[in-house]
Amino acid sequence: MSADLEFENLVRLYYRDLYRFGLSLTGSEADAADLTQETFYIWANKGHQLQNPASVKGWLFTTLHREFLKTCRRQNRFPSESIDERMEDLPNVPAECADRADSRTLLRILGEIAEDFRAPLVLYYMEDLSYKEIADVLALPLGTVQSRIARAKIQLLRRLSDTNLSLEQAR
Fold it and tell me: Domain containing 48 — which CATH number?
């Protein structure tokens, strides 16, 4: 198979997943498309260096995430946020809460979660990566990934609960 066909096949296989991951990180379709294209550009230039062809997906996700972080550093968009670790503060979220959340609301709420927590959550739930794969993609210890996913769930539930309360009050 020629290199062009291999590249086209790779794009066909992973573009959608990478774009969704980029969209969840940036909250912007244009920025997600730029990140995805940049990832494939980097692959076109450096992909030949990958020694284990089975880890292509992880390499692409890692590259996209690193490009996102570079963009964030350039734009100085990392606000400092304190983390509330108390488990007793978990919101009481009714079961129908998740049923009423539409995709736009969910993307907006995901965008409100700190990026350090958002990335592992998205990789786990939307991209079906294991904790180990996420740790590799984000270059974090396994325990940190597990902790961040747990904290991200708390943040997500709180925001979903607040959104539903606002919707109930508006009716």
Answer: 1.10.1740.10
